[in-house]
Description:
The protein has eleven helices and twelve strands. With 306 residues, the protein is α/β, with parallel strands linked by helices. Strand 5 and strand 6 form a beta hairpin. Helix 3 (105-116) crosses helix 10 (289-300) and helix 6 packs across helix 8. It starts with a strand and ends with a helix. Zinc ion (ZN) is lined by residues 157, 174, 176, 178, 181, 183.
Amino acid sequence: VVHIGLDIGGSKVSIMAQDEAGKILAYQREPIQKNYTAFLAQIFDLTKQFTDKSNITLGIAIPGRVLKGKNNFTVNPANLPFLKEKDFGQDLKAHFGFLPAIENDANCFTLSEAVEGAGKDHDYVFGLIIGTGVGGGLAFKGNIIAGRHGIAGEWGHIPLPKRRPERDGDPMQCGCGQTGCLCPELSGGGIQKRYGMLGGNASKSVEEILTDKQNGDAIASKTFDLYFDSLAENLTVLIGILDPEVIVMGGGLTHIPNLADELKSRIGKGFWTSPLTTEIKLAQFNADSGVRGALHLGKQSSSQNL
Ligand SMILES: [Zn+2]
């Protein structure tokens, strides 16, 4: 049996295929075709070397919400508008002969880290993504907990629980249509906003602000203090609801030096059951977690296909 994972991103599509022993048979990443017909052809082309369709499993990671029906699914990622109102699930089924397993990319990230990455020694894993946006997923004993709407662990679109104007500034507009979601506040844009609030030039990139901090700039330093405080406070609330054994962090902002330690020293302050001993770790696979998680997802669903 060949296990195939596909990670469909806003700009790239990745494939990984492994045999039963975990040996990598295919691994490729290429720009995504942004037209539905060409996109389907691209997926069929990436998987065409695995000609025995009765002997493959296939899992897919995709941004945004996946709407699952009894024997079908549809997707509508904001950054891939050509997929809107297309019968993606049925088109895949017609080609492969079975309906592939599919989850959003944060769930696939979490699954990969839970099964073989930084969370593999724990039963109960929260996968946290912080970068241009904020997302998350939950896994228990190596399985995704998707929830009724597929959004379990998707904590980006709730308001900051304890907004403080001097730390968090004015509520930001979120891509979901709401204002003040923690998604923009705790992503790269939230760092730039705080830098501007303190008198810095908010058009500087997060990378530049980070360099300033490393060069001893007081405003940049204070900016990251505010950001770490806010992120830690939000993670404390998350722990108060979900109480995972470990939080595994991935995404563009995880390259901030000492991020895990900065959070560990702040999480749980003033909490009713502090000290909190939740482990905070960086993802092992990061950029590859989506495609690896998709592969595991397909593998787990294989009993339904074969
Ligand atoms: Zn939102």
